[in-house]
Amino acid sequence: STYILYQFFNTCGFQNHRYFIPNRNVEPYGIQDSLVNFVKEGNYHLVITVDNGIASFEGVEKLNQIGCETLITDHHLIQPDKIPNAYTIVNPHLPSSTYPYKMLAGVGVVLMLIRYLGRELEYDITPDYYFWTAVGSIADRVPMTEVNRIIVRYAFQHWQELKYSTFEFLIPYYGPIETYSDIYELIQYLVRLLSNGREENGENAALRFLLETNGEKEKLFYHLDSLKNQSETELAKVYNFLDTLTTGFEGSAFIYFDDEGIVPYHLLGAAASYIAGKFGVPTLIMKLHNSEIVCEGRCNEGFNLVEAFTFCKEHLKQYGGHAKAAGFSLEPEKYDSFLECFHQYLDENCPEPVTNLKIEPDAVVSLEELNEQNWLSLELLLPYGQDHPEPCFLIKDTTLMGLQSKFQVDINSFNFPDNIKGDVLVSWISPRVLKVLSFTETSSIA
Question: Cβ distance 263 to 269 under 8 Å?
C-alpha cells in the first residue's frame, strides 16, 4: 500500500512526501506516538494512512492537536460510535459508502484513491500499480472474488507491460516467467519476501528494495531473503509447538495466553490462523507485550470477532479488524474481566465446531486427463483464495506406484502402501506435482 502511493507521488513529480511504516514487530496497530512525533519533528501538515487508521480515534486527535490533517484509507470494519475526526475517510465499510464491493484489501482501497487522483491530475495509471495491488491483495488473504479477482487477473494479462526495475532485477534470480501459474507463484514468493524488513523510525528494508534502482538493490534483496528464511524457520517451530499444545484438544473455542514466550509478537496472527484452520473454532492467541496484553483472533464462517470484541469493549484498550481476523490490546488488570465477558459472548453466539469436514472433489479424473493442455486450461481459475479455493480432483482405483509413474507425489502424512489400490483426492500443484489430500482403500493387489 505504501509503495504504490509513494511511487505515484514520485512519478507525478511531488518532492515533499515521506513514508513512515511502523514496526509492527514492536508497536501495536494504528496511529501510535512514534508517528505523531515523526510528523511533529518534520512539520508535516497531512498524513495519509494506508490499511489502518479507522480505529485510531485517539491517534487522529493527537495529529489534529499539532495541526496535521489526516486522510484515512482503510478496509477494516467500522466502529460507528468511534469514527476518527479525520479530514476524510476512504473505506468501503463506511455507512455512507455506496461502493458496491466491500471486501477490498487495504492496498485495493489505495489503488482506488490513486485511480481517482490519476483522473484529476490526468495521469495514466500503469499496469505496475495493479500488479503490486495484486501482491498486496493476495498477502492480505481477502476473498478472490469480484474486484479483487479482476485486479489480479488484470495483473496477469498485462505482465509483459510491467516496467519498473524490480521486475528486471528479479527475473535472473527467480527464473523465467512464461505462464499465469508462473506469475501467481512469483506473487506468492514476493508476499513471503516483502513481509520482512521492518525497522526503527518508520524505515522498512522491503520498501527501500522496491524503490531502489542502483547497486544497493542486490544487497537489500539478499538481506530480505535471509530474513524470509529465518521467519519461515521460526514459523515452523511455532506450528510444531501448537501441534503439541493442542494434542487431544476438544472444544468450541481455543484461547491461549503465551506466558512462556513461545509465540513471537509478530506471529500471533499466524498462530491464531493455524489453530482456527485446524480445528474450525474461534481462536485467540495472547501475550504480554510492552506492558499490555495484545491478542490476535481468527475464526471461520458463523462467528464475528469484531462483534465479539465490541460486546467486550469496556474491557479493551483498543480493538479492530475484520469479522474473521481481528485483534485487541488491554490492560493486564482487565484480563480476567475480559475473559468472563468473552466466554459469555461465546455461550450465546459460538457455533458448533467443524469436525470431520469432508473435502468434496471438483471433478473425477483419470491420470491421463492431468496433462499439459488441461493444466493450461486450469489457469483460467487463477487466482485462488478465500471464497475461491484451489480445486481438488478424485482419481479412482489407483496406486501410489501409478501416481509416481507420471508425477512427483507429496503423500503428506497419509499411509499409502504400494500394494493397495484406492480412491485418491489430490491437489494439482504444478504440471508434474500432485499433493495427496485423502486416500480411501478400495482393494489390495494380489
Answer: no
Euclidean distance between CA atoms 33 and 59, whole angstroms: 8
- Model confidence pLDDT, tens digit, residues 103-120: 999 999 999 999 999 999
- For the stretch 227-243, pLDDT in tens is 999 999 999 999 999 99
Q: 352-358, long-range: CB within 8 Å, 24+ apart, which pairs? A: 352/252, 353/251, 353/252, 353/279, 353/280, 353/281, 354/279, 354/280, 354/281, 354/300, 355/280, 357/280
Angstrom distance (rounded) from CA 313 to CA 298: 17
- Across the range 192-208, mean pLDDT stands at 95
- Split at pLDDT 50, 70, 90, the class of 355 is low
Q: Which of 431, 437, 359, 364 is nearest to 397 (CA)?
A: 364
Assess whether pLDDT exceeds 60 at residue 446: no
Mean pLDDT of 181-190: 94
Q: Which three cell numbers stand for residue 101?
A: 464491493
Q: Kindly report the CATH number that applies to the domain delimited by 2-220.
A: 3.90.1640.30
Q: What are phi and psi of 290, to 5 degrees?
A: 50, 45
Which CATH number applies to 246-349: 3.30.70.1230, 3.40.630.30, 3.30.300.30, 3.10.310.30?
3.10.310.30
Q: Report which of 157, 153, 158, 160 is spatially closest to residue 138, judged by C-alpha positions.
A: 153
pLDDT of residue 370: 95
356 pLDDT above the threshold of 60:
no
Residue keyed to cell 528494495: 209
Residue closest to 394 by CA, chosen among 333, 354, 332, 442? 442
pLDDT of residue 255: 98
The domain limits of the chain are 2-220, 246-349, 363-444
CB neighbour burial string for 76-91, b if at least 16 within 10 angstroms, e if fewer? bbbbeeebbebbebbb
On the 0-12 / 13-18 / 19+ scale of CB atoms within 10 A, 178 is exposed
